Amino acid sequence: MSTKNHDPQVHGLFSSPVAFQHLFDEIPHGVFLVDRQRRIVAVNSAFEALTGFSREQVRGIFCAHVVRNTICQQHCPVLPNSGEGVGECPAGNIISSDRKKIPVRINLAPIYDLSGECQGYLETIEDLRASEIWDWERIHTEKFSHLIGSCSEMQRIFQIIPMIGQTDSSVLITGETGTGKDLIAEAIHLASDRAKGPFIKVNCGALPETLLESELFGHQKGAFTGATESKPGRFRLAHNGTLFLTEIGDLPLNLQTKLLSFLDDKVVYPLGGSKGVKVNVRVVAATLRNLEQMVHLGVFRSDLLFRLNVVRLHLPPLREREGDIRLLLDQFLRTIAVQFKKHITGYSEDALRELLSFPYPGNVRELRNIVEYAVNICQGAKIQLNQLPQYVLESKTPPPPPSVREEVMPHVPTASTEKLEMTWKSMEKKMILDALAQAKGKRNRAAEILGWGRSTLWRKMKEFGLDV
Amino acid sequence: MIHTAHHVRSVLLVAQDGCVAPRFDMALEAMLATEVEGMKQSLILPQSSAEELCHLIMKESVQEVVCGGIEDEFFQYLTWKKVRVLDNVIGPVDWALERWKAGKLQAGDIFRQESVASPEE
Lengths: 468, 121
Known about the structure:
The complex is a heterodimer of chains A (about 475) and B (about 120). Chain A is of the alpha/beta class. In chain A, about 40% of the residues lie in helices and about 15% in strands. Chain A is built from 21 helices and 16 strands. In chain A, the strands form 5 sheets. A 5-stranded antiparallel sheet of chain A has the order 4-3-7-6-5. Chain A has a 5-stranded parallel sheet with strand order 9-10-13-8-14. In chain A, a hairpin with a 5-residue loop joins β5 (about 90-95) and β6. In chain A, α15 packs across α17. Chain A starts with 8 loop residues before the first strand and ends in a 5-residue tail after the last helix. The relative contact order of chain A is 0.07. Chain B has about 120 residues and is α/β, with parallel strands linked by helices. Chain B has helices at about 50-60, 70-80, 95-100; strands spanning about 10-15, 20, 30-35, 40-45, 65, 85. Chain B has a single domain (about 10-100), classed as Nucleotidyltransferase, domain 5 (2-Layer Sandwich), CATH 3.30.420. In chain B, strands 1, 2, 3, 4, 5 and 6 form a 6-stranded mixed sheet that branches. The chains are: A alpha/beta (about 475), B alpha/beta (about 120). The interface between A and B is medium-sized, with 24 and 25 residues.
């Protein structure tokens, strides 16, 4: 290779000399040459694009000042006893001139002259940004290490979370109680571009309807008695983030309409307010109920289900997650033992047999509680059979199939509840009549007998048509 | 803390082996200086941390920072705090300081002389 005014040429490879720089520029990775003093001799186009420095700027400059790789700052790979050594491919990151931190992997090769003396080095910088987007293992370790599951179904879910995170569609997570719906919702938020924004969780079943509306959509000052101040509501608090609506199956019908309207136009109308507020929120909903069945019963809006059902994740119950029970038992034992400062190394054989055969109707949450109970009780190095909760030892019945399980069904008035209500009402009426008879018609005395206040008795009598 | 009148400019240069540190987040030395008095203080940091450096810059109320590479997050933060950041500066600290005092130092300035030696040499 010969040089002439920074226009080096390669001789001897082809019938006529070729331009070295042109050849160098064709390499898709950032490549540069340094002399023995580690001053830059040549760089290619990919290097210029990656670092943001032009070849004219960096020629003759000490490479670590241009490349700015973490590896170079800690231990230059060229130096003896650097720990890495020439030929290895350590991963680090660089800071480009436009202030981007870029993960890279470098590869270093010495360049020898014809007499075998080292004249410099060829260094390749591989941009890892593209490969890291799909580097599930690394993302999993950094962000989702608390998600545990080795069964194929859970692995599939873990693998699609980053992809779901990259979209902005509504997500519906279904699964029995204790299967980890909340964790998955948060993992989706963390995997999305909204990760730096807020993750707001609202339990739709935890608040009465009127309060829930104000909690979700906010209210203006004076909107109702006691509204002394304006409240932004959870939708506005979740602006640029994710709103997680758990127990969506418990959302009252009129709020379902309001939520549907929000999903359509992304505008929140606070209670008592005349103006809508546009917010940028992704909605993730979860429920243990069978929403299709609720739609069929007329207690859940079908159009809301279709809106939420853009991306659906169903978390399998623990009894269907082959191999995960053992994994979770060990993981929880480790973490809880450390938390309680106990030196417990495992389970005795019979305790483990019992734990592996338990059906876990409460899924992972129940499994964790059982382990926590056992760690509390255990005094030795291994958890024994008699240190497990009594109900674990007694339970031998398999769990009922989901179709007949009561908790997955919504609370809707049925003939039997109506009958029960009627019975209670007639019984209450009979109690009032008995008390009045006993008090010889004196209402004060009757109220005393019943243990009620006068106003309560009066109200009940009016209700039952006894106020004559 | 450097107490300066409002019209006297002050600067913090992150340093490494006598040169402007290539990375703000990995610098272990910082030099505080003013336009009038020159070098005031040389600090050895207990650990490299961009957050700690930002905290130091705020505490010392310096108006300008000279460094090599800096992540956008910290650049934006300092700019928001009205600190002028002269980044992508490559060269010896003394050269950078003199140039800064003369009001000539710009972001992206590179020292051009054969004497830019590697620190280990």
